[in-house]
Structures are given as C-alpha cells and as structure tokens.
Design a protein that fits this description.
This protein has about 140 residues and is mainly alpha-helical. It has helices at about 5-30, 35-40, 45-75, 80-85, 90-100, 105-130. The protein starts with 5 loop residues before the first helix and ends in an 11-residue tail after the last helix.
Length: about 140
C-alpha cells in the first residue's frame, strides 16, 4: 500500500497548485495600496475590520485567479492520477484513458466536451465573483 491513495493524491495536487495561488495572491498584495489600510486604521478600524473590509476584497481577484489556474491544472492531471492512485481506484483522467484504450465510441468526446464546459463555467463563475474586468480602471479615458 505504501504512500499511494487519496491522501497522497490530495497532497500532490496541493503541492502542484499551491505555487499558482501563492504567486497570484502575492502579486495582488504587492499591488495593494497600503494607504487604504493606513486610512482605515486612522479612522479607528481594528485589524480584523481592515482585513475583512479592505485587504481581502482588494486581493480577491488575484486569489481567485490563482484558484482558477490551480483548478484547471489539477482537473485533468493524468500523471498524478496514474502514479498515485491505488490499484482499483479510478479518477476521471484514468477512466478517460481506460475508456479510450478499450472502446471507440463518441461517449468520451461527450465527456471531454462536458469537462470543457464545466471548466469554462468555473472560470466565468470566478470572473463574476471576483469582479474581473477587461476594462482599465483609472487612467485617462
């Protein structure tokens, strides 16, 4: 049995995805205007209030971007699933590979299209929640 199984698979996905989330969150924090936090502090806001009402809303788009990248990378990562899952256990990537190996019908194409639609739906949901926009904020118009 060794180190195989669900805990190893989860740990591998966390190790794989953590740099994306960390990098995007760190970029958001680097671009965060500290004057907003100092202004809230001078107006009497506690550390918790400043974190909840100033810092977290300002870095939310960066964190959600990192989560989106991590999700997309982890969702169809075949090597992690193949090497870290226990014999007899099946993840979606392993099921897709097995099905393609032993069967040639359009069901796998439908599963892959559904997978793509699911990923796009997650991206659009994060875009809506995170308030991402293609418009430039500030600057000259």
């Amino acid at each position: 049995q060794g180190i195989l199984g669900t805990p190893a698979l989860i740990a591998a996905h966390v190790v794989l995805a953590l740099p994306f989330v960390t990098r995007m969150a760190a970029t958001s924090l680097a671009n965060f205007d500290g004057n907003l936090d100092r202004a809230a502090q001078s107006l009497g806001a506690s550390k918790r209030q400043r974190l909840q009402h100033i810092v977290l809303p300002m870095i939310k788009p960066g964190v959600l971007s990192g989560v989106t990248f991590a999700f997309i990378i982890s969702f169809n990562n075949i090597p992690l699933s193949v090497f870290l899952v226990r014999p007899g256990d099946t993840t979606l990537p392993i099921a897709v590979i097995n099905y393609l190996e032993y069967s040639l019908d359009p069901v796998m194409a439908a599963v892959n299209v559904a997978s793509m639609i699911f990923i796009l739906a997650v991206i659009f949901l994060f875009e809506k929640i995170g308030g991402f926009s293609a418009q430039l904020h500030g600057g000259s118009k």
